[in-house]
Fold:
Amino acid sequence: MNHVIPASQLETQITALFVKAGATPANAQQVAANLVMANLSGHDSHGVGMAPRYVDAILEGNLSPNTSVAVKVDTGMLLGLDGQHGFGQVVGVQAMEMAFERVAQHGACIMSLASSHHLGRIGHFAEMAVAKGWVSLHFVSVFSRPVVAPFGGADGRFGTNPCCIGIPLGYGASTQEPFVLDFATSRVAQGKMRVAHNEGREVKPGTLIDEHGNPTNKPGVVVVPQSNGRMGALLPFGEYKGFGMAVACELLGGALSGGGTWHQQADGRRAVLNSMLTIVIDPARLGTQMSFAQESLAFVDWLRQSPDAPGSDGVTLAGEPERKARAERLKNGVSVDDATWQEIQASAQKLGMRL
Structure:
């Protein structure tokens, strides 16, 4: 059974949950709005189903709900920041806004953000940049239970390590909806396996290996401990190519930022820490704004002229599915599966409240 809840009501309920857990009303609302937006965008893996884990992380002392970003290095175009285990949806926005100040001054900024709690949907930060007409690139590491196997390996050794690229399309009156590529370097996001497990669904072949390293379609192998106490693992997308991208995200997002890399056994903590390397560029300051806009639109138009492949809906660009989902779910409400809703209710009861 699924619960269909209006987005505004869901945001109010999750805000109340975080306030009860100790967050300021402003921080609680910002995080809740971000999670609901992920649901609206069709990414339930990064939506309100994460709220119970956030509450647990606060209770275990590994998420500081009212912490702000700290500046470690500031040389103009280079920013080195520390998220201090604060809500990623809060410190991540603070970090992006600081980077935007440098882009306005210098035309570009390279910003690293170490040790933030879960940043949520990375596409949110790219959308912030493209709204200004700027390009952004994001490389993110995940410091939590290792859930992805290296290519050729048989157990989890690192996280889903997302990569995101935001590119504005057009300029002025010719502006079109932006290209926002946001993907986990695993074949699917870990959160999607949680959702599939809660809904009792199997997943596509080639996505998972079980606790023995054998292929499986059962998402529970990466959600709950198996018979021998071990867990299965997700596989990287694109075999060695996706694996290579995952390693790059770990080294750039984690090592270069100072947030560290994962090379230890899982410790059972509920907190999910992210570190991120972000590059933001203003095409106008690069001197290519008009040609960039013209060439971008010409290329996109060229892609759209390709005939529809048999059985497909035609060419779809990154960012389009999210915008379509938002329109539909804003109108019809957000569907939350029963198991996820029960987890949210249990989290509220843990705090001595009811939703």
Summary: Residues 1-66+332-355 form a domain with the Hypothetical Oxidoreductase Yiak; Chain: A, domain 1 fold (CATH 1.10.1530.10).
